[in-house]
Hints:
Elements: E1 9-16, E2 24-33, E3 36-37, E4 43-46, H1 55-61, H2 65-68, H3 78-85, E5 89-92, H4 95-105, E6 114-116, H5 117-124, H6 133-140, H7 154-169, H8 175-182
Amino acid sequence: MNFDPWPTLFVVDVEGNGANPPDLVEVAALPVRDGGPDTSTAGAWLIRPPRPVTPRAAGIHGLTNGLLAQSPAWGELTDQVHALLGTAWICAHNAHTDYRVLKAHLPNWEPAGVLDTLRLAKATYKDLPRYTLDSLIKYTAPDLTAAPAQRHRATYDAYATAQLLIAMASHYDTWDQLVAAAVPPGLPGAPEPEEDPTLW
């Protein structure tokens, strides 16, 4: 895979407070440049949610109400997050979720397209028993020694997802082939269905 023609792309991951719909408590946006994650220009934000973090959510990602008490509210960060993401492509694992939550919090934002590493993994590795992020990390064994924080934190999960994307991209010759395999129908960037040929 030649990475030169790739458009600007951020691997994103969000963590929520356990409410439904969720309030954001962490957002990570990690650029992929020249075939690798670029942590030097990544964005990562901790957010004080308007509603408390549930014990279950805190037990998963470790972000407690006390830890977030001094973090800014989402309204103080929206312009910054929107400015970084711009109209770039995004990628996430089970991307419907991250796209939907980000879109709810950034109503004026629209990415150029959305790659889903879950969908891509099912197309690339056809016979795996499971396609969770943990299962794919175990299967592809990417180098995560430079990943920040730990599993279930947005920065770590974005880094791991970026490494998965890069590993799977090697199975495709072109960006367009990757897009065809990785963009869920109905999300930005999905290939247009070919129109039925007419007799004329």
